[in-house]
Amino acid sequence: MCGIVGLFLKDKALEPRLGALLSDMLITMTDRGPDSAGIAIYGPSEAGAGKITVQSADPASDFKGLKAALAKKLGVAVSVSVRATHAVIAVDVAKLDETRTVLKELRPGVTVMGSGESVEIYKEVGLPQDVAERFKIGAMGGTHGIGHTRMATESAVTTFGAHPFSTGPDQCLVHNGSLSNHNNLRRELVRNGLSFETENDTEVAAAYLSHKLATGSNLGAALESGLSDLDGFYTFVVGTKSGFGVLRDPIACKPAVMAETDEYVAFGSEYRALVNLPGIETARVWEPEPATVYFWEH
Amino acid sequence: MPTFDLASVPLRDLNQALHSVGAGTNESDFEVINPRGAHAVAVGIDKPVHVDVHGSVGYYCAGMNAEATVTVHGSVGPGVAENMMSGTVVVKGDASQYAGATGHGGLLVIEGNASSRCGISMKGIDIVVKGNIGHMSAFMAQAGNLVVLGDAGDALGDSLYEAKLFVRGEVKSLGADCVKKKMRPKHLALLADLLAKAGITDAKPEEFTRYGSARTLYNFNIDNVDAY
C-alpha cells in the first residue's frame, strides 16, 4: 500500500507549523505502511547558501569532528547540525559538489540523502510517529514538504529503501505503487552513468527523473515522458525548490485526494490525512485525474 | 435517535449497534458525526434502519448493505456500497473509485461525481450519478442499471455483460464490446422510474443515450485461437 502526503503552503503565517502539520498528516497514514517513514522539508533558503542532508549508521563517530574536517579541506566556513542519524551540512552553494566529493573521502560511511538550497530529507526504518519524533520534524518550519510511510513490496526494509528519494538538487520523489519495468530501466540508466544504492523500484523512478532533468527536460516534461516509460502502478508526489507536483498512472488504482484553500494545497493517500488541516471543512477537495501532471509553485 | 460521535466512540461500537438492531424495533434512526474519513462506516447492515452520516468517510462505507438507507452528507472514499444487496445509499458529495462495485441490488445515488471504475462488475444494483463518472466504469458489469447525468470517462462498459448504461453527457470512449443502443419505450420507462427513485426532476429520459453489450465476447471465436 504505502501512504503519501504533501503540503504546499500559500499562507506565510502557516510556515512555522509546516513540520507539525505534515508529520500529523503522515502519522494518520501509519496503517498504510508501518515499515519505514520519511519526510522532505523545504525550509527558507538564503542566497548563496547550500545544504546537504547526510545519514550515517554510526553518527557518533561519523559526525564527530566533521565540521572542522570539512572546513579544513574546503577552506570555507561550514556548519553541521546533527539530528539523530542524520546531519545537515550548510556550506556555500558553489561548494556543494566539492563538499560531496570531499565527504566521500573523509567519511566513507556517510550517505547523502539530498542536497540543494532548501531541501532537508529525513528517513528511517520505523513508524511515522517514531521517525517524526526522532528527527523532531514537528518543530520544523518551511514552505512545503512531502512525506511517505512505506509498506515494502519489492525490496528490503532499510533506511535507503525508505522514501523520499532525491532526484537532483532540491528535488525528491515519493511513490505509492509498484513499477514492473524497473529492472530493465535500471540497466538502461546504469549504461547512462547513473548509480544505485538499492534494488528499490522507486529509486529507479527517481533516477529516471534525474536523468531526464539532467538531459534538458523540465520537471513537467520529465513527468510526461514517465507516463510512457514507467510501467506499473504509481501515484507520485515530487518536491522541488519552489513547489510540488502530483502524477498518477493512467489506471489510477493508487488512491489520491487533494484539498485546496487560500492557505494551502494538500495531498493525501486518503482523506483521513487531511482532516486536521485548518479550514478543511470548506476546502475544495478532489481526486487528481489519471495521467495528468499537476504542479503548484511559489 | 442514537448518535455516534466517531471522534470519541470507536467505529466498532457504531457497527455493532447497527448489527444488533432487532426486527420491528422503534430505534431505527441513527446519526453519525465526525467520521473524519473513517473506513467501513455503517457496513453490513441487514435491517431497514436509516443512518445519516454527517461528514466525509473513507473506504467501503455502507458495504454489503441490505435493506438500510444510508445517507452520507459528505464525500466517500473507494468502494462505497460495495456488494450492496438491497436498500438505498445516497452520497451528497463525490465518490472515489469503484462505487457500487459488485452490487447485487438496491439503489446507490451519488449527487456529485464518481471517479474511476464506478459500477465495476455490478450484478443487479441500480446506480444513479448526478455528475460525471471516471474511466473503466461498468467494467464487466453483469446486471443492473447505471445512469449518469454528466459525462463518462474512457473505456465505458468494457467487456460488458447485460447491465444497461444510460449517459446524458459525453462518453470519452467505449470499452471493448460496448456499443450505443436504441432507446426503446421500455427503456424510457425504466429510466423515468430510476430518475424518480433517485429524486431527480431536472432530467428527461429522452436526453440520455443507452449503451450495452454487443455480445461478441460471449462465445469464443475460433478465428482468435492464434491469439492465445
Describe this structure in a few short sentences:
The complex is a heterodimer of chains A (298) and B (228). Chain A has 298 residues and is an alpha+beta fold.
Describe this structure in words.
The complex is a heterodimer of chains A (298) and B (228). Chain A has 298 residues and is α+β, with helices and mostly antiparallel strands. Chain A has helices spanning 18-28, 59-62, 66-74, 96-106, 128-135, 182-191, 201-214, 219-229, and strands spanning 3-9, 36-42, 49-56, 79-83, 86-92, 110-116, 119-125, 144-150, 165-168, 171-179, 232-239, 243-248, 257-260, 264-268, 284-286, 294-297. Chain A folds into two domains: 3-42 and 127-297, Aminohydrolase, N-terminal nucleophile (Ntn) domain (Glutamine Phosphoribosylpyrophosphate, subunit 1, domain 1, 4-Layer Sandwich); 45-117, Alpha-Beta Plaits (2-Layer Sandwich), CATH 3.30.70.3400. Chain A has a seven-stranded antiparallel beta sheet with strand order 7-2-8-1-14-13-15, covered by helices on one side. Chain A has a five-stranded antiparallel beta sheet with strand order 9-10-11-12-16. In chain A, strands 4-5-3-6 form a four-stranded antiparallel beta sheet, with helices on one face. The longest helix of chain A has 14 residues, at 201-214. By secondary structure, chain B is mainly beta. Chain B has a single domain, classed as Pectate Lyase C-like, CATH 2.160.20.60. Helix content of chain B is 10%, strand content 23%. Chain B has an eleven-stranded mixed beta sheet, with helices on both faces. Chain B is elongated. The chains are: A alpha+beta (298), B mainly beta (228). Chain A binds chain B through residues 251-253, 255, 257, 270-275, 285-287, 290, and chain B through 36-38, 56, 58-59, 75, 77-78, 94, 96-97, 115-116, 134-136.
